[in-house]
Amino acid sequence: MKLTKKFIKENAEMTLKEAFPEVFETVLEVGVWYKYNTTLFNYQKNGNVYGFLRGVWKNDNNWFWNSNIGVEIATPQEIQDALEKEAVRRGFKEGVIVKPLWETPLYSWNVYENQIRFEEKSNAFYFGCCIFKNGTWATIIQTITKQAAEERLGIKII
């Protein structure tokens, strides 16, 4: 890249970003969270992404990201805030029973709101237990109280 006196005079009104857009491009890395305007996404192979398109969760293999211009790496706090908001929207709250996303997901686990954290290294989000990892959400196990079951079934459970 060579900057000449002639180029400077001819393009005096341009910003550096307009004159040299390739310098400001971000080379997207697989597994990294990026942000662009109201979009927050995790870049995957072949341009596939999952994340929040204008604040709405998407992970359907029909969403691609082709442009690198203007994309910035998202902070762990931005990621945690978005995942926490989505978790609440999905019904994760104190006392909910889930099938967590970890090595032995055969066991159920309670959700605890005082243990919310995003772990950037493992790309996992915890709400007391792991409820999000690499684009996949844990399953909420539907529960019912004994009294509600008795009323619904019209029988006494002993």
Report strand %: 25-35%
Instruction: Give the low-pLDDT segments.
Output: none
Question: What number is the mean pLDDT?
Answer: 84
Number of strands: 12
* Count of discrete alpha- or pi-helical segments spanning 4 or more residues: 4
Please write the string of helix (H) and strand (E) elements: HHEEEEEHEEEEEEEH
Shape descriptor: rod-shaped
Helix content: 10-25%
Structural class: alpha+beta
Instruction: Provide the domain count.
Output: 2
- Main pleated-sheet profile: 5 strands, antiparallel
Distance between the termini: 81 Å
Strand order of the largest sheet: 4-3-2-1-5
> Radius of gyration from the CA trace?
23 Å
Report on the architecture of this protein.
The protein has 158 residues and is an alpha+beta fold. The chain has two domains: 1-74, no CATH class; 76-158, no CATH class. It has four helices and twelve strands; from the N terminus they run H-H-E-E-E-E-E-H-E-E-E-E-E-E-E-H. The protein has a five-stranded antiparallel sheet with strand order 4-3-2-1-5, covered by helices on one side. A hairpin with a 5-residue loop joins strand 2 and strand 3 (49-53). It is rod-shaped. The N and C termini lie far apart (81 Å). The model has no long low-confidence stretch (mean pLDDT 84).
What tags apply to this protein structure?
158 residues, 21% helix, 4-stranded antiparallel sheet, 4 helices, 2 domains
